[in-house]
C-alpha cells in the first residue's frame, strides 16, 4: 500500500486533522509521484520503502507498558513518513532524503520510532560498517533513545541473535556496525564516520555546533540519514528557532527554500486559539488516541485553563506553540515583529536615546527611539557591546551558562566586541556619534542609568549630547513599562528584526509591587543567566519619550 497517498486521503476527507505545513508536504509529495518536476532525478519505490516498515514491525518489539514485548505496530502517519524517507531514490538506488526534521508534541512515539529506525539503519540498510549515533545536548538525554534501543533489543529475540550489547554501544559483528549515544560535550567528535544520526530534543541546543560536526561526519557515506526529533522548547534565538524557520519554509516550499533533500514534518497547531478546540489537537499530536491518551491531554488542557504557570508547558510541549515563560513580560507573539524598514526611511530624524551600561564584563546596549510624521509606529535602532574576554569564554566553551549565540550576532553586526575584559564606553559614544554624522539621526536626549555612567556622561556631553539620568526603579518605570507593553501588543514597535533585542524581550520578567492600591512594576531577569539589557536600554529611552513627548513631537521629520 502507498501509505503516503493514504495519509493524504485521510487528511483530505477530514478524518485526520493536519496543520498547513503537514498538508503542504503531503500534497506536494503525492503530486510529484504522479507528475514529477522537470529534471527531477528521483522515482518512488513503494516496495523498497516497505522493506523498512516490515523490518521494524517484524523484528522490533515494544519495551514498555501493557504492550511490552509485543511487535511495534507503526501508525499511518509513521508509515507515511518512513515511506517518504526510504521510497524516493535515484536511478542508482540512492536515497533522495538526507535529513528529516520531525517536530511533534510529547508522547507521540518519537523515541520508540527512532529506536526502531536506529536498528533498521544498523541491520537493514545494506551499509558496510554502519555507525549510528544517538546525540543530544546531554549524555542523559542521548541515553533516552539509546536505552530504548537497548530495551527493544532485549525484548526482540531476532535482534538479540545478531546484535551484541557492549558497555557503551550496541555492536553487530557481521557488518561491523554500532549504535552509540553521544553528548554535545563529548570530546573527539571529529573522527566519526556516521551513517545515521538521531538528534533528540534539539530544542535544548544553544547553537548548531553539535549538528554541524555530526553532519560533517556523514560526508563519506553514499546515503546517510540525519533525523532531528524534538518538541518545541523555551530556549529562544538559538539552534531550534533557526532550524524551525528553515524547515517551515521548506515545508511550505517558499521560494529560495526548495530543498529536495530535507523532509520537514512539523506537527503543530495553526493558531494559538486552537489549543482549547479538541478537534484540532491531532494537528500537533499525530499519535493521539493510538499512542497518546486523549484523556491525559484533556486533563492537561483543563489544568492549564486555571493554572497560568502550567499553560506555557501545555502550549509548548503538547501543541508545539511558541510561547514565553509564565513569568514573561511579553507573550511570544507580542515580542516578535519581523518588520524591517529601509535605513533611508529612518535617516534625517530626531530621536530619543537610551542606554544600559554594564557594570563589569556584561552586555551593554545603546538605543535610539525614532518617530516619523504621520506614522504611529515606534522605530528602534540598537547596538550591543560585549568584551572580548566574554567572547573568548564562549568560543573556548568555558562558560557553561552562555545562553545566547553571541558569536553569530557579532558576525551579523548586531554586537560590537570591545578589546579586553570590559566594555569600552567610548565605543558606545562612537556609535551614537556615527548615527549623527553618517545617518543624520540625532537624539535630543540620551537617557541612562546614572549609577554606572562613570566617565561616559562627560564624554557624551563633549560631543554635544543632552544627557538625562533616569532613576532605575518601579516609581520611574511603571507607567512607561505598561505603555510600552501596549505598543508591543499592537505590534507598533519596529526594531528591525533585531534578534538580540527579541531575546532580551523574551528574557524579561515582571516584578510587581502593590503599594497603596497601585500596581508598580519593573523589569527583572526571568532567570539568573538571562540578559535583559536591550529591554532596559529601550525602556530608558521610552521613559524619556513619555516624559518629553510634547517637546519631541514638533521635531518629527
Write the layout of secondary structure elements.
Blueprint: H1 3-12, H2 20-34, E1 43-44, H3 46-59, H4 76-87, E2 88-89, E3 99-103, H5 110-123, E4 131-136, H6 139-155, H7 157-162, E5 164-165, E6 170-172, E7 177-183, E8 196-200, H8 209-216, E9 225-230, H9 239-251, E10 262-266, H10 294-306, H11 311-318, H12 332-335, H13 343-346, E11 349-356, E12 364-372, E13 375-387, H14 388-396, H15 406-411, E14 415-418, H16 425-437, E15 441-448, H17 456-462, E16 467-469, H18 474-489, E17 493-494, H19 499-507, E18 508-515, E19 518-525, H20 533-547, H21 549-552
Parallel strand pairs: 3-9, 3-10, 4-7, 4-8, 8-9, 11-15, 13-14, 13-17, 15-16
Antiparallel strand pairs: 1-2, 5-6, 6-7, 11-12, 12-13, 18-19
Helix pairs in contact: 1-2, 1-4, 3-4, 5-6, 10-11, 18-20
